[in-house]
Design goal:
Helix content: 10-25%
Number of strands: 10
Distance between the termini: 71 Å
Oligomer: single chain
Largest sheet: 5 strands, mixed
Strand content: 25-35%
Radius of gyration: 20 Å
Length: 183
């Protein structure tokens, strides 16, 4: 396809910087997700990973893919559902754990899932406060939000606390069953 090219690990889609390659995969901005680009990538033996924010990072001149010295992880921003107990919102990790137990994914929704130009939690916080990336559907980051940094090997979760971030185990709450036996 003449409108899609790849040079030095960079994928161009009709003149637009669309993505980059990493080993046997292509990380491509979600805005370019299409059947023709998917087929083009498959024809080159590349698995597509559709991610928000890739084009803007390439335009900004960031070194991505094989050029990076530290692999960048994907970022998910978890924010509390609107219907949770309002007392859970905007509180420290210690208060959350004491009053409601450990933060639990069932109480949260994903407000962002994509790549940024950093793995630094403070820089991520600043980014969502001043210039949120495309695809972000939440409010500015605040206490009680959870930032997840992940890749193909798993992820780490960080509770946004009063001062900085608290690494947490962010797994579903164990379900307790009330079993009643009747005769």
């Amino acid at each position: 396809m003449p409108g899609i090219t790849m040079q030095n690990g960079r994928i161009s889609y009709y003149g637009n910087p669309a993505g980059y390659t990493e080993k046997n995969k292509a990380v491509v901005d979600r805005i370019f997700q299409s059947d023709d680009l998917s087929a083009w990538l498959r024809g080159r033996g590349l698995a597509a990973e559709w991610t928000d924010g890739v084009m803007e990072r390439l335009i900004a001149g960031e070194k991505l893919g094989a050029e990076t010295t530290t692999p960048l992880k994907n970022v998910r921003i978890w924010q509390l559902h609107p219907e949770v107990d309002v007392r859970m919102k905007f509180i420290s990790y210690a208060d959350m754990a004491r009053q409601f137990g450990e933060p639990c994914p069932e109480d949260y929704h994903i407000a962002y899932d994509g790549q940024l130009d950093t793995n630094d939690l403070e820089a991520i916080y600043d980014r969502f406060d001043t210039h949120p990336p495309a695809g972000f559907s939440g409010q500015a980051l605040a206490m009680s939000d959870v930032v997840e940094l992940y890749d193909g090997n798993g992820g780490d979760f960080y509770y946004t606390d009063r001062r900085g971030f608290q690494k947490i185990d962010f797994s579903p709450r164990e379900q307790t069953q009330d079993m009643k036996m009747t005769m």
